[in-house]
Amino acid sequence: MVKHNNVIPNIHCHKKYLESSRGPLKVRLNLNQASKKKTRRLARAAKAAKVAPRPLQKLRPAVRCQTQRYSAKLRLGRGFTIAEIKAAGMTPKYAATVGIVVDHRRSNRSEESLAANVARLTEYKAKLVVFPRKRLNKPKAGDASIEDIKAATQLSGTVLPLAKPAAEIVMEEVTDEMKEFKAFTTMRVARQETRVDGYRKAVENRKKD
Protein backbone atom coordinates (compact mmCIF):
# COMPACT_ATOMS: atom_id res chain seq x y z
CA MET A 1 0.00 0.00 0.00
CA VAL A 2 1.07 3.60 -0.59
CA LYS A 3 2.51 5.72 2.18
CA HIS A 4 0.98 8.85 3.65
CA ASN A 5 -2.41 10.39 3.03
CA ASN A 6 -2.41 10.41 -0.77
CA VAL A 7 -5.03 9.73 -3.40
CA ILE A 8 -5.76 6.05 -3.76
CA PRO A 9 -4.42 4.85 -7.16
CA ASN A 10 -7.41 3.91 -9.25
CA ILE A 11 -6.34 4.24 -12.90
CA HIS A 12 -8.19 2.60 -15.77
CA CYS A 13 -5.95 1.30 -18.57
CA HIS A 14 -8.75 0.21 -20.88
CA LYS A 15 -7.55 1.73 -24.15
CA LYS A 16 -7.11 -0.75 -26.96
CA TYR A 17 -3.83 -0.21 -28.84
CA LEU A 18 -4.49 -3.07 -31.27
CA GLU A 19 -7.50 -3.88 -33.36
CA SER A 20 -9.27 -7.00 -32.25
CA SER A 21 -12.52 -8.80 -32.64
CA ARG A 22 -13.96 -6.70 -29.81
CA GLY A 23 -13.72 -3.45 -31.79
CA PRO A 24 -11.58 -1.02 -33.82
CA LEU A 25 -8.49 0.85 -32.68
CA LYS A 26 -9.32 3.44 -30.01
CA VAL A 27 -5.94 5.21 -29.87
CA ARG A 28 -5.06 7.61 -32.69
CA LEU A 29 -1.52 7.14 -34.00
CA ASN A 30 0.45 9.59 -36.16
CA LEU A 31 2.41 7.14 -38.24
CA ASN A 32 2.00 9.16 -41.43
CA GLN A 33 4.09 12.19 -40.40
CA ALA A 34 6.94 11.44 -42.80
CA SER A 35 4.63 10.86 -45.76
CA LYS A 36 2.61 14.01 -44.97
CA LYS A 37 5.82 16.04 -44.80
CA LYS A 38 6.83 14.75 -48.22
CA THR A 39 3.36 15.48 -49.61
CA ARG A 40 3.49 19.09 -48.39
CA ARG A 41 6.99 19.57 -49.85
CA LEU A 42 5.92 18.22 -53.24
CA ALA A 43 2.79 20.42 -53.18
CA ARG A 44 4.92 23.51 -52.50
CA ALA A 45 7.27 22.60 -55.34
CA ALA A 46 4.35 22.04 -57.72
CA LYS A 47 2.78 25.37 -56.79
CA ALA A 48 6.11 27.18 -57.21
CA ALA A 49 6.51 25.68 -60.69
CA LYS A 50 2.96 26.65 -61.58
CA VAL A 51 3.26 30.33 -60.57
CA ALA A 52 6.88 30.76 -61.80
CA PRO A 53 8.55 33.23 -62.21
CA ARG A 54 6.35 34.81 -59.55
CA PRO A 55 7.39 34.18 -55.92
CA LEU A 56 5.51 31.57 -53.95
CA GLN A 57 4.66 34.01 -51.15
CA LYS A 58 3.29 37.56 -51.26
CA LEU A 59 4.40 40.80 -49.67
CA ARG A 60 2.91 41.43 -46.24
CA PRO A 61 3.11 44.46 -43.91
CA ALA A 62 5.03 44.87 -40.68
CA VAL A 63 2.60 45.12 -37.76
CA ARG A 64 2.72 45.06 -33.97
CA CYS A 65 1.39 42.13 -31.96
CA GLN A 66 -1.82 42.58 -30.00
CA THR A 67 -2.16 43.53 -26.33
CA GLN A 68 0.21 45.59 -24.24
CA ARG A 69 2.28 42.56 -23.33
CA TYR A 70 3.33 41.73 -26.91
CA SER A 71 3.04 45.17 -28.55
CA ALA A 72 6.83 45.58 -28.57
CA LYS A 73 7.18 42.62 -30.93
CA LEU A 74 7.14 43.18 -34.70
CA ARG A 75 5.71 40.55 -37.05
CA LEU A 76 4.24 40.14 -40.53
CA GLY A 77 0.57 41.07 -40.81
CA ARG A 78 -2.28 40.00 -43.05
CA GLY A 79 -2.30 42.80 -45.62
CA PHE A 80 -1.58 46.46 -46.31
CA THR A 81 -4.21 49.11 -45.64
CA ILE A 82 -5.76 51.11 -48.47
CA ALA A 83 -4.11 54.27 -47.08
CA GLU A 84 -0.69 52.62 -47.26
CA ILE A 85 -1.30 51.45 -50.83
CA LYS A 86 -2.39 54.93 -51.96
CA ALA A 87 0.51 56.62 -50.17
CA ALA A 88 2.89 54.38 -52.10
CA GLY A 89 1.38 55.56 -55.39
CA MET A 90 -0.65 52.45 -56.23
CA THR A 91 -4.27 51.35 -56.31
CA PRO A 92 -5.55 48.35 -54.35
CA LYS A 93 -6.61 46.65 -57.59
CA TYR A 94 -3.15 47.01 -59.13
CA ALA A 95 -1.38 45.99 -55.90
CA ALA A 96 -3.26 42.68 -55.86
CA THR A 97 -1.90 41.87 -59.33
CA VAL A 98 1.79 42.35 -58.42
CA GLY A 99 1.95 40.15 -55.33
CA ILE A 100 0.86 42.60 -52.60
CA VAL A 101 -1.80 41.55 -50.09
CA VAL A 102 -4.47 44.20 -49.39
CA ASP A 103 -6.54 44.13 -46.18
CA HIS A 104 -9.49 46.53 -46.36
CA ARG A 105 -10.43 45.89 -42.71
CA ARG A 106 -7.13 46.98 -41.18
CA SER A 107 -6.56 50.67 -40.36
CA ASN A 108 -3.50 52.69 -39.34
CA ARG A 109 -3.36 53.87 -35.74
CA SER A 110 -0.10 55.85 -35.98
CA GLU A 111 2.02 57.78 -38.45
CA GLU A 112 5.02 55.55 -37.67
CA SER A 113 3.33 52.36 -38.87
CA LEU A 114 2.03 54.12 -41.97
CA ALA A 115 5.48 55.47 -42.87
CA ALA A 116 7.18 52.12 -42.19
CA ASN A 117 4.84 50.16 -44.45
CA VAL A 118 4.95 52.83 -47.17
CA ALA A 119 8.74 52.52 -47.13
CA ARG A 120 8.33 48.74 -47.34
CA LEU A 121 6.10 49.11 -50.41
CA THR A 122 8.51 51.57 -52.01
CA GLU A 123 11.41 49.15 -51.55
CA TYR A 124 9.31 46.36 -53.06
CA LYS A 125 8.41 48.51 -56.07
CA ALA A 126 12.08 49.28 -56.69
CA LYS A 127 12.91 45.56 -56.83
CA LEU A 128 9.76 44.53 -58.69
CA VAL A 129 10.09 42.99 -62.17
CA VAL A 130 6.77 43.18 -64.04
CA PHE A 131 6.50 40.79 -66.99
CA PRO A 132 4.44 41.74 -70.06
CA ARG A 133 1.10 39.99 -70.31
CA LYS A 134 1.39 38.74 -73.89
CA ARG A 135 4.76 39.23 -75.61
CA LEU A 136 8.01 39.28 -73.68
CA ASN A 137 9.85 41.10 -76.47
CA LYS A 138 7.35 43.97 -76.53
CA PRO A 139 7.07 45.42 -73.00
CA LYS A 140 4.51 48.17 -72.42
CA ALA A 141 4.54 51.14 -70.06
CA GLY A 142 5.15 49.98 -66.50
CA ASP A 143 6.72 46.67 -67.57
CA ALA A 144 10.35 45.73 -66.95
CA SER A 145 12.99 45.88 -69.64
CA ILE A 146 13.98 42.85 -71.69
CA GLU A 147 17.33 42.59 -69.86
CA ASP A 148 15.63 42.58 -66.45
CA ILE A 149 13.13 39.97 -67.61
CA LYS A 150 15.89 37.63 -68.82
CA ALA A 151 17.86 38.05 -65.59
CA ALA A 152 14.85 37.54 -63.31
CA THR A 153 14.73 34.46 -61.07
CA GLN A 154 12.01 33.08 -58.82
CA LEU A 155 12.30 34.22 -55.20
CA SER A 156 12.05 31.51 -52.57
CA GLY A 157 11.12 32.17 -48.96
CA THR A 158 9.63 35.26 -47.33
CA VAL A 159 9.38 38.41 -49.45
CA LEU A 160 11.34 41.22 -47.74
CA PRO A 161 11.75 39.45 -44.35
CA LEU A 162 11.83 41.60 -41.24
CA ALA A 163 15.28 42.47 -39.94
CA LYS A 164 15.95 41.10 -36.47
CA PRO A 165 17.03 43.70 -33.91
CA ALA A 166 20.66 43.59 -32.87
CA ALA A 167 21.25 41.82 -29.58
CA GLU A 168 24.42 43.75 -28.82
CA ILE A 169 24.56 45.98 -25.75
CA VAL A 170 25.51 49.57 -26.54
CA MET A 171 27.83 51.01 -23.90
CA GLU A 172 27.60 54.74 -23.17
CA GLU A 173 29.64 57.04 -20.97
CA VAL A 174 27.90 58.45 -17.91
CA THR A 175 27.98 62.24 -18.02
CA ASP A 176 27.64 64.74 -15.19
CA GLU A 177 24.22 65.74 -16.48
CA MET A 178 23.03 62.15 -16.11
CA LYS A 179 24.36 61.99 -12.57
CA GLU A 180 22.59 65.22 -11.57
CA PHE A 181 19.26 64.14 -13.07
CA LYS A 182 16.80 62.97 -10.39
CA ALA A 183 14.46 60.54 -12.13
CA PHE A 184 12.23 59.82 -9.12
CA THR A 185 11.79 63.51 -8.24
CA THR A 186 11.01 64.38 -11.87
CA MET A 187 8.35 61.67 -12.06
CA ARG A 188 6.73 62.74 -8.76
CA VAL A 189 6.63 66.40 -9.82
CA ALA A 190 5.12 65.50 -13.18
CA ARG A 191 2.52 63.32 -11.46
CA GLN A 192 1.59 66.07 -9.05
CA GLU A 193 1.40 68.65 -11.84
CA THR A 194 -0.98 66.40 -13.74
CA ARG A 195 -3.19 65.89 -10.68
CA VAL A 196 -3.57 69.60 -9.88
CA ASP A 197 -3.82 70.77 -13.48
CA GLY A 198 -7.61 70.63 -13.53
CA TYR A 199 -7.88 72.42 -10.17
CA ARG A 200 -5.60 75.23 -11.32
CA LYS A 201 -7.57 75.72 -14.52
CA ALA A 202 -10.82 75.85 -12.51
CA VAL A 203 -9.34 78.51 -10.19
CA GLU A 204 -8.18 80.58 -13.16
CA ASN A 205 -11.63 80.42 -14.73
CA ARG A 206 -13.23 81.64 -11.48
CA LYS A 207 -10.87 84.58 -11.32
CA LYS A 208 -11.74 85.55 -14.87
CA ASP A 209 -15.45 85.43 -14.12
Short description:
It contains 8 helices and 2 strands.
- The counted number of beta strands is 2
The computed structural class is mainly alpha
Mean pLDDT: 89
**Main sheet, how many strands, which sense, barrel?**
2 strands, antiparallel
Task: Enumerate the strands of the largest sheet in spatial order, edge to edge or round the barrel.
Answer: 1-2
Task: Assign a percent range to the helix content.
Answer: 40-55%
Helix/strand order, N-terminal first? HEHEHHHHHH
Specify the oligomeric state.
single chain
Query: Uncertain segments of ≥5 residues (pLDDT<50)?
Result: none
Radius of gyration, whole Å: 31 Å
Binned strand content: under 5%
- What is the global morphology? flat
Individual helix count: 8
How far apart lie the N and C ends?
Answer: 88 Å
Q: How would you sum up this structure, described in words?
A:
The longest helix is centred in the last third of the chain and has 26 residues, at 183-208. The chain has eight helices and two strands, in the order αβαβαααααα. The model has no long low-confidence stretch (mean pLDDT 89). The chain has helices at 33-51, 67-70, 82-87, 92-97, 111-127, 146-151, 176-180, 183-208; strands at residues 62-64, 74-76. It has a domain at 57-127. Strands 1-2 form a two-stranded antiparallel sheet. It starts with 32 loop residues before the first helix and ends with a helix. By secondary structure, the protein is mainly α. Pfam families: Ribosomal_L13e.
